[in-house]
Prior knowledge:
CATH superfamily of the largest domain: Enolase-like C-terminal domain
Oligomer: single chain
Strand content: 15-25%
Amino acid sequence: MRIHSLDTYRQRVGDRPRILVRIRTDDGLDGWSEVYNHGPDLAYPPLLDHLFGQIRGMDAGSPGRVNQFLLQSGRFPQGALGLAAIAAIDHALWDIAAKAVGVPVYQLLGGAVRDRVRVYAGLYNAPDVPELRDTTAALHERFGVTAFKLSPYRRDPHRTRFGLLARELGDYFGAVRAAHPAEWDFAFDAHAVLWEPRQAVDLGAALALNEPLFLEEPIRPEHVPAWARIRSALTVPLATGECLYSPHEFLALLTAGGADIVQPDICVVGGLTQMTRIAAIADAHYVPVAPHNPLGP
Length: 297
């Protein structure tokens, strides 16, 4: 069962561009995947064609071997687009490997370890409480969700005194709590727009009284000591990881004590093969994994 061909398909789902990948084996099995749209999307087809030239004829039933070959054959780190393309190949090959033996992919990884996973609804804004209550009630009624992710910014964080923003956030979250069942959870995604670790600590302090599910990605990920500093000063769970690219980066973050929850993106880190390694590293540090990914129809 050898890798025979690779085709790409550019699509659009609403306002989101999408590139699908199909790998076909010499005995007719197809594996499908989707490429993370870091952009520019026109860069992916020639990049995937280049990678295909390196793996043509390799065993399609050995995604781990192909993944390692692609990662180790480059002289320099592959970067965002390269890892996204390698992840797409990895996922298509896992699809083929599972189809070849007639089982779901998770069965190849050792089988299911739980029969349900709690999810939250991502709202990504901070509407007035009556509007938020209507939205959360509708989502709970339709999907049964009891956790929601909001923005911590009721005003532009770069055009106001930050202490005022933090104080208003604390008041707002208190009102949100008062308007919802006590068992429901609310997380806050700061979207890495802050540049001072102190401001991240101020956000966490404003939220702490009302016990957020977590505060996500207040700053960019590059400087690990800053994450260790922020986490050491917070009393709320700190989450990050969607912009980290490798098991080595997650190892550095967790060794420094820089996160309570890690959020690797399976299409960013190089695929399922690398994701399982990151999960093992997190498990060894007693840190839960909450995968990030906005793709799919």
